[in-house]
Amino acid sequence: MRITVSLIKADVGGLAGHVVVHPKLEELARKRLEEARETGLLIDFYVYHVGDDLQLLMTHTKGENNAEIHKLAWDIFVEVTEKVSKPLKLYGAGQDLLKDTFSGNIKGMGPGCAEMEFEERRSEPILVFSADKTEPGAWNYKLYRIFADPFNTAGLIIDPAMHSGFIFEVVDVYEHKSVKLSTPEESYDLLALIGTPGRYVVKRVYRKSDGEIAAVSSATRLSLIAGRYVGKDDPVLIIRAQHGFPATGEVLEAFAFPHLVAGWMRGSHTGPLMPVPLRYAQCTRFDGPPRVVGLGFQLHDGRLEGPVDLFDDPAFEMTRRMAEEVADYMRRHGPFMPHRLGPEEMEYTTLPSVLEKLKARFVPAEAE
Ligand code: F6R
Ligand code: MG
Ligand code: MG
User: Binding of Mg(2+) 2: at which residues (predicted)?
Assistant: First the structure.
């Protein structure tokens, strides 16, 4: 049976600033998705949040980029904005809804979206990851470790189904172009690109032996769509695990190191990506640190069995402690790079007005 998994998210209002999604937003979203399940549009769904981002995980048989599914998500974001965020004056009510009317596909309208369609295997473990206060390129490091680094993923060496490697589809979010690179042969070319996560973003990963889809991320930049600051595009990721794909534990292994990502306060700082359980899926210190939640499901005829709250485990306590230490270390740099992002990556900046104000006071520098 061919199943589509769609994960669509938006920030449509935060509680106490940009900390967390209001439970009433989730409640109403659940009600609407339940109705869509009753009409048969959806097979199943799961609603959750990370930080101020409302997450709609849906399964169905309509394929990717389906107008009915995208409209369902769009209408829910609009309705919860009107019925909950605005009356309660939640912070940034409807902030990710950049267009007035739905035009067939939610991509390019503000919300983030990751979708994959596949033939459900005899047993189909699905892992979904959602992060807040960072950008889609934050997955680059994780995806490389999971699908191309044998020091992370033992199966690349010892599982015959994975031994020939994976193909990475990388999007240049500035030029709106993409390129497919094959690992392990083109690993260095791949790293040359995705080491710049603000520009080159891994969109999909395919298994080389049979072309099966293994992973898909949301890869947009709201600021580039809107042409003005509307927040970082807090990203989502779907990964198929086991039996010829990386094991659940190999996928999670990549999250044990809280690598540095762009985002955090005002979308303008570098900080560690901290894996947290759902109960800690809120952004506090300096509006962060950037957080990721991971949920595991077993699909059965498109129904979602689960979730397992994957980071709700002592095995990730050391990672969280390390993230806290790194957060503290980075914070001590205050307004200095590399804690503060470079000028081209900052979402907020006063630099042009400061330069304008000081223009007349700049004098030729003495020869060094
Ligand atoms: C980062 C983020 C927050 C805000 C910050 C300032 O993605 O959403 O860190 O940038 O709280 O928000 P405003 O300018 O709305 O007061
Ligand atoms: Mg927000
Ligand atoms: Mg957010």
Answer: 52-53, 132, 234
* Ligand 1 proximity of 231 Cβ (cutoff 6 Å): yes
153 shares a domain with 27: no
d(C-alpha 260, C-alpha 272), whole Å:
4
Residues 127 and 263 in one domain: yes
User: Does residue 358 fall inside a structural domain?
Assistant: no
Q: How far apart are CA 320 and CA 334, in angstroms?
A: 22
Report CA dihedral (263, 279, 126, 324) to the nearest 10 degrees. Answer: 40
pLDDT at res. 231: 60
What order do you get walking across the sheet with 53-60 strand by strand? 44-50, 53-60, 2-10, 112-119
Q: Which residues surround ligand 3, an ion (CB under 5 A)?
A: 11, 51-53, 132, 234
ipTM attached to this prediction = 0.98
Using a cut of 0.80, tell me whether the model's pTM lies above it. yes
Do 96 and 180 sit in the same domain of this protein?
Answer: no
Give the chain's domain count: 2
296 and 181 in a common domain: yes
pLDDT single digits (tens) 301-340 = 999 999 999 999 999 999 999 999 999 999 999 999 999 9
322 C-alpha to ligand 1 centroid (Å): 25
Name the band, by pLDDT with cuts 50, 70 and 90, for residue 367: confident
pLDDT at 222 over 80: no
- Identify whether 229 is a catalytic site residue: yes
